[in-house]
Amino acid sequence: MPVKSRKTTLARTLAFALTLVAAVTALVAFHFSTATASKSTVLGAIKNAPAPLCPAKKTGGCSVMGTVTGFGVSANGNKGLYRIPNDGHIVAWSVDMGKPDKTEVGNIIAAIGEHKKYGTAPVARLAILKHKKSKKGKSKSRYTLAKQSPVIDLGPNEGHKPIYTLNKPLKVKKGQVAALTVPTYAPAYTNKVSPAANAWKASRPSDKCGEQYVAEAKPHLRKGTTRNYGCTLSGEQILYYAYFVANKGGNGGNGGNGGGGQTDPNRATVIGPDAGAPQIPTVGGIAG
Question: Taking a C-beta distance cutoff of 8 angstroms, is the pair 190, 50 a contact?
């Protein structure tokens, strides 16, 4: 039986040790991301969430959210669903989307026009707004854009409920608001809800809330700028969600009077045919 040299034995021992260290490091990293995700509060989550509109042959109508930044004021009677409950981070966001057919897409583009940067693709990003204290003669609904996520092309996932996780989570502060910015359009919308229990605010002045002003409206895209969110649109919902993780030692809160502190029962992490139990996403990449 050959005898192994001291150098060979030492080299193999060192290699095994390095492998073990790498395995432990990977395990710790996995544990950290999973643990972080498991503490997520889903801002905007409610029970019995309505389905998005489009196509009309399935839903009885097709309307979309277009060329605007907006946030939910109330949903099924629950208020404050998108208010950040404590200092922490937004680690992911989600949209529940319908899927307009070709004719409907053509009608949508004809109504809103082509965006100079994003063209006619359905795109969106999550925005973090800070309420601006009102001054004499100024609207009480003025908000400053504090943070925003990268823009995502929603087209490949229309008709589904994707969750987009952030490689760089957004640092947020208590009292800020998670909003949805749509430079072009997003089929994450419904107007088949109670006017008394559902409403959202749009980044347009109060005298330009009608549909005829949509084409000339502008979403809130420049960080540090302040806009008037003077339009409160009742009987409508925008169907988006933000995944919030409180700082260590903080309380995750409940994201308003609806859903927080646990997995949103209306979300699924799969991108493609909706299936399986909903899960909280991990940080980084696209969940699914």
Answer: yes
